[in-house]
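sorry for the late reply, my laptop died twice this morning and i had to redo everyting from scratch. anyway the thing you sent over, i finally got around to it. pasting the sequence first so we're on the same page, its 273 residues, then the predicted structure underneath. double check i copied it right bc i was rushing
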Amino acid sequence: MRRAGGSGRWMTGALLAATSLVVASCSAGATSGPSAGRSNLTIYAAASLAGALDVATTSYQASHPDISLTISTGSSAALETQIEQGAPADVFLSADTANARKLADQGLAAGALVPFAGNLLTIIVPATNPGAVRSPADLARSGLKIVAAGDSVPITKYADQVVRNLATQPGYPAGFATAYAANIVSKEDDVAAVVAKIALGEGDAAIVYVTDARTSATVTSIDIPATANVPATYAGVAVKSSRDAAGAAAFLAWLAGPDGQAILGRFGFLPPP
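ok and here's the structure:
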């Protein structure tokens, strides 16, 4: 597997992906000669899927030796925009259904949306917990530094709904949602960047996916009550402009099937709701 960054302009991601594919082609030619039947698929995926896709890609390529995968991760919203602008992706894996549906609504997807994973949210704090956050109610405490993601990033939509749900819980202070918003000190490009800032102690708390909380040994999780938590649904589409539409659809079906679900489950993802 080759990985290309997906958080900058799409042209940068496209050039990196193209470079990876050229390198892969040269390597293959050096050992076995050109293979007209080999397919290279570029997967644009939400940042929260990075770890799971590392393993999924290795597994898929082992059972599909005629397929080579390049993974580019970033904010689902940014990746969707890049595809709109012509980025050469074959499969788009979003941390929500809305961004995948945007491609479908514009006629840029081949086939129906495929829900392939679920997730829940949690609060993370640095391991030393300098903000002394003990419960979700503390997120409204004056002076707390909260790290969030940009407004268009799917985690923000889910987190905002969690905050609204918490505001209705017994014992939560009046104006909880307003106080939470006032405590946000930065908005990052994607959820991976949010986790990184908390791990580095550059914020006191953040709301992230449960799966992302598991990726860092230097953050601690604080549970969100089940009555306030929000299930996230991840959905994917095969991109209509793919040079291997059948291969793109096959990978997406595999990820949503038993083999892909088993790998996603190892990383804490849930079956799609």
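Residues 43 and 91 are 5 Å apart (CA to CA).
thats about all i looked at so far, will dig more tmrw
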